[in-house]
Amino acid sequence: MPLRQGGCVQPVISIQQLSKVYASGHTALQTINLDIHKGEIFALLGPNGAGKTTLISIICGIVNPGTGKVLVDGHDIISDYRAARARIGLVPQELFNEGFESVLATVKFTRGLFGKPANPAYIEQLLRDLSLWDKKDARIFELSGGMKRRVMIAKALSHEPQILFLDEPTAGVDVELRRDMWNMVRGLRERGVTIILTTHYIEEAEEMADRIGVISKGEIILVEDKAALMHKLGKKQLTLHLQQPLTHIPEALANNYPLELADSGHALVFTFDVQREHTGIAELLKDLAQQGIDFKDLQSSQSSLEDIFVNLVRSRA
Description:
317 residues, alpha/beta, Rossmann fold, Alpha-Beta Plaits, 2 domains, six-stranded mixed beta sheet, elongated, disordered N terminus
């Protein structure tokens, strides 16, 4: 969970009034204000082209900001670039590899770029955690795509950063790597490392994240604690499996309840707000009986994070 000092959550990244317009005229980001807390896992969700990678690239010093200010652990990314960047590890989407270097040499070299003293024990443990130790003498070009992804993670962690950015880290990788990576992320968070990830695998954000940010068309449209977000925006559905199929919903029911037919008329789906004191279920069941509609089973389900995300982005389209 986020680390607290003096009763207040301390931001490790503070973004104020950040905008970015490319030379082509494309507005990638507009007026981003966001604090990311020490020791949390923050998931940034958004469709392709929403601005996720641009935002990460600015924080990491790869892309110049337009207007605004970004502080990394109190260090300005422009005026104090080296100190800010030294605190960050980045696993980008694209595979970059130094083809003829060995795995071990590549990771050691990356650590040295940040001015960190040699630490063979740390590097060995890092490679073992990523199932790379047996490949330490292999040259990068000899590795599979999944192994190259592991090397990128090892490079990002080589200088023991306080903040780790994972930009679509598990896109197109095997299940084993995804499992290993999330086990490592949990371990890093336990040691106080802040994790910021973008992902298309919303179930991963639902399982891993402490807070969720949603970005659409270059704007942060929502930042919320994951549990609070799902409670606030989540809807529950009651599915009634009918004794006899319906061809349509009777007008008396359609006018009073948010109902849909499903399963070729064999099921009736009632959507209700979990926060309302009266859900309307009791009244619905009574009215179904008055209409002579019998059901043989019922089940309830809650909206997933993916449902919430899709509805949020669609509402801003």
